[in-house]
């Protein structure tokens, strides 16, 4: 699925997504674990930031200056309103060039929407965009391949290169694996924390 089409799908559910996730506990424990490895403050990048909310607030509480990027224009509008002192850009991470190196990069439930062929290039781009001692945390599916699924009366696309290839890719890009968890078993949701040490 082209990222532009994905953005339009999320435009339709942006306000509902925001209502459900703004103060949700979903992913917070995992995110705090990643922050525990991170330096205090600096630049943070939130890939697939959605409407902002809980994760952006956690980053702000740790003195990070946040840049959020998302393919949904409506999500970016909400995030910009909720967090006017942070930076949000309506862009496709597949083609967007990171303007800085970041001390903390998160891609929570976003990379698995990318076209399969974009998985390795985007993860490699995020690795290259990580500053020394920086932390990368992202989620992916534990299977290898592509699927579609129904959600909010629409069809959404997902892809993954699986656990082994993600870990190998991180190591090939000079990162050290700090934590891996299949955190919603028996669902196939995985998150990994890695560092440029």
TrEMBL record:
GO terms for biological process: methylation. Coiled coil: none annotated. Gene3D superfamilies: Vaccinia Virus protein VP39. InterPro entries: Methyltransf_25, SAM-dependent_MTases_sf. It comes from the Bacteria. Residues 45-134 form the Methyltransferase domain. SUPFAM superfamilies: S-adenosyl-L-methionine-dependent methyltransferases. Keywords: Methyltransferase, Transferase. GO terms for molecular function: methyltransferase activity. PANTHER family: TRANS-ACONITATE 2-METHYLTRANSFERASE, TRANS-ACONITATE 2-METHYLTRANSFERASE-RELATED. This is Class I SAM-dependent methyltransferase. The lineage of its organism: Bacteria, Pseudomonadati, Pseudomonadota, Gammaproteobacteria, SAR86 cluster.
